[in-house]
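This entry is passed on directly below:
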Amino acid sequence: MATWPGTLPTSPLIEGYDEDWGEIAIHSNPDEGPPISRRRFTKGIDTVVWPMLLTKTQVNTLETFFKSDCAGGAITFTLTHPRTGATITVKFAEAPNPEPENQLFRVSMKLTIMP
């Protein structure tokens, strides 16, 4: 399994960071009475949006990591969760897209946290 490159930031930017805790319950509204909810899964599919500002060299490192080490997003890798500090296994939910910003590049990665 791949490991997040040490030359890339280990913490996301606060602006643009987002966590989505996967839904594990199902809800329905019967014809009469209160809404009904029940657990559907034991673990939801959690995602995190991880924004970073990178140098040109770091963007090249990220590109190599994504395309080679992670087989274009097919292979999982480990990194440290920025809020909990736990080591988590993730995979790219979509390809990162660097956007120029002054002398740096803004990259926002969408990652799926593996159960």
Q: What stands out?
A: Residues 56-69 form the longest helix (14 residues). The mean pLDDT is 92. The longest strand covers residues 104-113. The CA atoms of residues 50 and 109 lie 5 Å apart.
